[in-house]
Amino acid sequence: MNLALWQQLKAALADVEEDPKMRGLVFRSGLDKDVFTAGNDLFVLYAPKSSEAQYRDFWVAQTSFFARLYQSRLATLALIRGACPAGGCALAFCCDYRVMTDFGNIGLNEVAIGIPVPKYWSLLMERTIGLRSAESLLLKGLMPSASEALALGLVDELSSKEGLDEKGLSAMKAMLSVADSGRVATKRHLRESFAKAWGDFAEEEAKYGWNLISHPKVVAAIEATLAKLGSKS
């Protein structure tokens, strides 16, 4: 998930929102592997291969997309096939409903690779499953399995891989079975102030984030993760 992808997602969201005939939006993976998304591009987070300006553009684009998606008038659905770490998990949390395959895992695992979970991602998990459960997962960098995620409330429903699209369609129909006038206004009441604060924090968080990822210890931690991923591939 790099700058170009976040910009494309933001543009696609705006296009759909501005079309009065569109009422719902589904996010699903087109990858051959069973991965919703592998998360943010680690090379953007690896300071020796990036720059403060590049990181700032990346972070602001990502955050503005998340803040808009979270309060979107659309009924939003994440169809999660397999693994869903970090940035992909944050995207799924911004959706109204999450259907996941009965295999895979999901979570904000930043602590496990030596970096902090972004502030509003942490707060979003707290909003989703409660403070104590969120702390237990976040502080250990855990990625619960599909069944554990369902029990915790990280996802709303499980499905076989083959039945994922069908279950997603049923979930979307259920969300759209009520009038948009009431659903959209209530969603805004619940989420608008949080989304605004999140968007407003993007510039400040980008500055903090660059200072953090530039620290030698964090550089070394990300370097080790890249080496590990390189050896697997």
Give the structure's gist in a few sentences.
This protein has 233 residues and is an alpha/beta fold.
Features:
single chain; 233 residues; alpha/beta; two-stranded parallel sheet; 58% helix; globular
How would you explain this protein's 3D organization?
This protein has helices at 3-17, 42-45, 52-70, 86-94, 119-129, 131-138, 146-152, 164-175, 180-200, 202-213, 216-232; strands at residues 24-28, 75-80, 84-85, 97-101, 106-107, 157-159. The strands form 2 sheets. A 4-stranded parallel beta sheet has the order 1-2-4-6, sandwiched between helices. The protein has one domain (3-222): 2-enoyl-CoA Hydratase, Chain A, domain 1. The longest helix is centred in the last third of the chain and has 21 residues, at 180-200. It starts with a helix and ends with a helix. 58% of the residues lie in helices and 10% in strands. It is globular, with a radius of gyration of 17 Å. It contains 11 helices and 6 strands. The protein is α/β, with parallel strands linked by helices. 34% of the residues are buried.
Please tell me what the overall shape is: globular
Poorly predicted residue ranges:
none
Across the major sheet, the strand order is 1-2-4-6
CATH superfamily: 2-enoyl-CoA Hydratase, Chain A, domain 1
DSSP strand (E) fraction?
Answer: 5-15%
Helix content: 55-70%
Number of domains: 1
Identify the CATH class: Alpha Beta
How far the N terminus sits from the C terminus, by CA atoms, comes to: 18 Å
Got a strand count?
6
Whole-angstrom Rg: 17 Å
**Gross CATH architecture:** Alpha-Beta Complex
Report the major sheet. 4 strands, parallel
- Average pLDDT metric: 94
